[in-house]
Amino acid sequence: MMANFHVTTRTGEKRTLEGVDGWRLMELLRDYKTGIEGICGGQLDCASCHIYVDPDWVGRLPEPRDEEEAKLDELPSWEENSRLACQIIWGEDLDGLTLTVAPD
Amino acid sequence: MSPADFVSPLHSQETDVLIIGAGPVGLFAVFELGLLGLKARLIDTLDRPGGQCAELYPEKPIYDIPGWPTISGQALTDRLMEQAAPFEPDFRFNQRVESLTKRPDGRFQIVTDAGEVHVAPVVFIAAGAGSFTPRRPKLDGIAPYEGKSLFYAVRERAEFEGRDLVIVGGGDSALDWTLDLLPAVKSLTLVHRRDKFRAAPHTVQAMETAVAEGRMNFVMGDLERLTGKNGGANGELTAVTVKSKTGSTTIAADRLLTFFGLNIELGPIADWSLDLEDGKQIRVGTDKFQTTTPGIFAIGDINWYPGKLKLILSGFHEGALAAQEAFRIARPDEKLRFQYTTSSSELQKRLKVA
């Protein structure tokens, strides 16, 4: 089965992309050139993989850990549906995930 | 006075190559330049060498450095410093390069935000993803307030004494400054998006006690709007509005401090008339890693060419090739001889091993 996700990129383009099992969502978004830099490589240091998850999906993802919440605290563009994509591991259960890349 | 006006001969200092960025690639360039007998000076916004390796992932193992099956960001930085040591590089930390211009004599001049002027015939831009800068609040029309009533760090305490101060943030910086400035201000309100803080527990407790005793306020929520005299035209803040789930709160304030952490941005490099790829990386040729301006090179993550891979090892290679051309520019009357460290007594002398 092909599992896809829907992204609104940093430039506002809407794309449907294929997931890769076991990859961090940050790595997928970086590889597909959606505007995500992922500078720190998933260390919860840079917050450059900030995304807004579609409200329908917020409760379907694993809850953020304290370390992720703490990093999200720093972001002036924080919203209720903010997540860091480096903390989300891709799996087929995420088929249909819809998200928007947050502004810089 | 802008930094660019601050050109005093006392502050003008010369070297062979100015390297912007003291990350792993900048450090290894010191070594490659040193083998050719060229002196380097490195300028970095951080307070120590290593760039992202030291700032973002000092403890993280890196697995793709040739010869090091695993090495941490800090250990790699330490090894590169050791390797560069014989060439006595000169470091200027805590400074951001604001301008890069060509002088009438053909050399380049760099002015930093600390007002230092550096001159050299060759410049290496090894700035990675750019410079670390404070994240700004995502609000329209904040520019007039910046540096006047809105600050991202405390440089002078006097700026906040006797003021109605709002501090935004939930980490150590926000909490430490809250407690530090509390006795000096007229009023203080701490704003954070939730009632959990990631700062040290005793600091959080001291803040909570101050709130319970009525010495300061805490408001849960996010910045919504700044209000100033004459619509904020002169940057004179009068109030800060915070929105939360339950509605908006307006707090009378004439000083605002926000602690949103650091962001990496290209910064002034974007204004140096270099050919940029996607607005983020500097285009270079792959023979010398020179930019469209002869004498200015870009190495490491900051550059772009067809096939570019953002790997530390690519940056090492790029620095070695750029150094060859740097020699031709800096020593036009000398012959460039390619030598090996294993056999050349001249190189071994420079390395201080012979």
The 3D shape of chain A can be described as globular
Number of strands of chain A: 5
Q: What are the segments of chain A in which pLDDT stays under 50 over at least 5 consecutive residues?
A: none
- CATH topology name of the largest domain in chain B: FAD/NAD(P)-binding domain
**Using CB atoms under 8 Å apart, which protein chain pair has the greatest interface?**
A-B, 21 and 26 residues
Report the span from N to C terminus of chain B.
50 Å
Instruction: Name the average pLDDT of chain B.
Output: 92
Low-confidence spans of chain B: pLDDT under 50, at least 5 residues?
Answer: 1-11
Q: What's the CATH C level of the largest domain in chain B? A: Alpha Beta
For the largest beta-sheet of chain B, the strand count, sense and barrel status come to: 5 strands, parallel
Oligomer: heterodimer
Kindly give the count of domains of chain A: 1
Helical coverage of chain A, percent range: 10-25%
Strand content of chain A: 15-25%
Query: C-alpha Rg of chain A, in Å?
Result: 12 Å
Within CATH, the superfamily of chain A carries the name: Beta-grasp domain
Give the averaged pLDDT of chain A, no decimals: 93
What is the strand content of chain B?
25-35%
Please tell me what the overall shape of chain B is: elongated
Mind telling me the C-alpha Rg of chain B? Answer: 24 Å
- CATH level 1 class label of chain A: Alpha Beta
Written description of the protein model:
The complex is a heterodimer of chains A (104) and B (354). Chain A is of the alpha+beta class. Chain A is built from 3 helices and 5 strands; from the N terminus they run E-E-H-E-H-H-E-E. Chain A has a 5-stranded mixed sheet with strand order 2-1-5-3-4. Chain A is globular, with a radius of gyration of 12 Å. Chain A starts with a strand and ends with a strand. The model of chain A has no long low-confidence stretch (mean pLDDT 93). Chain B is an alpha/beta fold and 354 residues long. Chain B has 2 domains: 3-133 and 263-350, FAD/NAD(P)-binding domain; 143-260, FAD/NAD(P)-binding domain (3-Layer(bba) Sandwich). Chain B has helices at 24-35, 51-55, 73-84, 172-181, 201-212, 312-330, 345-350; strands at residues 12-14, 17-20, 40-43, 61-62, 71-72, 90-92, 97-102, 108-112, 117-120, 122-125, 131-134, 150-151, 164-168, 187-192, 217-220, 222-228, 237-244, 247-252, 255-258, 262-265, 276-277, 281-283, 296-298, 303-304. In chain B, strands 6-3-2-10-23 form a 5-stranded parallel sheet, covered by helices on one side. In chain B, helix 1 (24-35) runs parallel beside helix 3 (73-84) and helix 4 (172-181) crosses helix 5. Chain B is elongated. The model of chain B is unreliable at 1-11 (pLDDT under 50). Chains A and B meet through helix 3 of A and strand 20 of B.
